[in-house]
Amino acid sequence: HVQLVESGGGSVQAGGSLRLSCAASAYTYSINCMGWFRQAPGKQREGVAGISSGREYIRDSVKGRFAISLDSAKNMVYLQMNSLKPEDTAMYYCVADRRQCYFGGIMVEAQFNSWGQGTQVTVS
Fold it and tell me: What is the DSSP string of the chain?
């Protein structure tokens, strides 16, 4: 498994921005899919954004506001979150897997073998 460490969460007012970062312990050339899930209190965990060999998945509810990017040289994946809304409040988890992702319009938890501890995002 790859060790993942998230950072960048915090509290922000509605309309604000945050950038989440995720550091991977393995070289990202050995990782073929990375992304972000989130879980709000009392709700199911949901896929937010994923990236795999040029393919991207962005959840409909965050399209136009969130963007995912990968810096292979730094072993980092980022989630830029703009125009944040209170409904974006959740614990955000970085995920990774050595297999390719094809998404097909959805991110599935079972696809990912490596999970970070999570970083809290609170929008008021």
Answer: ---EEEE--EEE-TT--EEEEEEESS-GGG--EEEEEEE-TTS--EEEEEEETTEEEE-GGGTTTEEEEEEGGGTEEEEEE-S--GGG-EEEEEEEESS----TT---GGG-SEE---EEEEE-
Residue of 72, 10, 7 lying closest to 36 (CA atoms) = 7
Cα–Cα distance for residue pair 107/34, rounded to 1 Å: 11
Q: How far apart are CA 34 and CA 92, in angstroms?
A: 13
pLDDT per position as a tens digit, 83-117: 999 999 999 999 999 899 998 888 999 999 999 99
Percent of the chain with pLDDT over 90: 80
